[in-house]
Amino acid sequence: MREQLIGPTRVLRDYLSNSMVWEAFVAQGGFVEGDIVVADPFKAGTTWTQRIIQQILSNGDEKDAGLSDTSPWLDSSWGDHAEMLRVLKEQREAGIRRVIKSHVPADALPIAAAARYVFVGRNGKNLGISFYNYLKNFSEATMSTINRIHAEWSSDHVPLVIPDDLQVFFDRWLDTDGYGCCDLFDVMKSWWEHRNEPNVLLVHYGQLRGDLVAPIGRLAEFLSIDPWSLRTDAIVEHCSFDYMSARAEKMAPFGGGHMSSAKAFFDKGLKRDYRSELTTAQIERFDRIALEKLGKDCAHWLETAENSSDDDLTRPKGVPCGFALE
Fold first, then answer.
1. Which segments in the chain show pLDDT lower than 70?
2. How does pLDDT run across 245-276, given as a tens digit for each residue?
3. Label partner for 25 (CA 20 to 30 A): which of 79, 95, 198, 279?
């Protein structure tokens, strides 16, 4: 990356996201060396990856504060932007490595040479189902706030209503480029185009589902931390699905306060299998659209976590790998 800062080339604003807050972030000082952005579509494994990075930075020590309190979802549409910016400013002044969550495409936020960007992908069919369950568990108060804010700026506001039937939602999600909440293919494609940048790392949910030791080592090296210095056993324990789910109020976004319960955020987790919840026609349709919108290599990686081209996505770019990643 030659430029020190690549500014956003578009504004993305929908029911759940508002990229305009990044202007305020840049105005109060922007990125500094060591900052980390975890970016992906909803329910791809953002919170899990945030947690792993938090544990790497603390070397397995636990913090009293919740994950969202120290690692804010800055471009959420209804979040307390002023408070999140205050926290990030204090962390910068204290010399703390900041970890920021984002759900917008790469061209809707600042890309800085000083920062590291971790994109998380996930099989899109499982992601769509998990996203449905996430939205379905939003509280009435949260949905009311989201719709109020959307109506204030959108000239063609239609209230966001989540259908009772998963398969109905899944079809509408594909028909409407993300149901006005998050366009999986747009976000995926935008970050795929940056995959060869030295400060961008692609991680896949499918890789996190296995032995966490290898992903921890890969992330640590990308963050310029010696993997061999880490208390890996403690980090693996603290990042397991069961451990995080049992502490949902500390791990879920906003402490789970926007949902029916914090526990609902974790839902089926690792046990999800789209083949038991979608029709054959829906599966085939998703795969066809993914191929059309993403191209063969990107669609294949999103589906399987495997690389079908000459790109080596198994290692951090420009960083030697001395940890067991195979």
1. 1-3, 268-271, 308-326
2. 999 899 988 988 898 888 888 876 566 789 99
3. 198
Q: For position 199, which CATH number holds?
A: 3.40.50.300
Its pTM stands at 0.92
* Contact of 97 with 36, CB cutoff 8 Å: yes
What total of structural domains would you count in the chain?
1
Phi, psi of 187 (to 5 degrees): -65, -45
The answer to whether residue 295 sits within a structural domain is yes
Q: Are strands 5-6 and 111-112 parallel, antiparallel or unpaired?
A: antiparallel
Residue 261's domain spans which residues? 5-304
pLDDT, tens only, 121-139: 999 999 999 999 999 999 9
| Integer Cα distance of 62 and 241 in angstroms | 16
In terms of Cα–Cα distance, which of 318, 290, 261 is closest to 127? 290
Cα gap 160→147, rounded to integer Å = 6
Question: What end-to-end distance do the CA atoms of the chain give, in Å?
Answer: 28
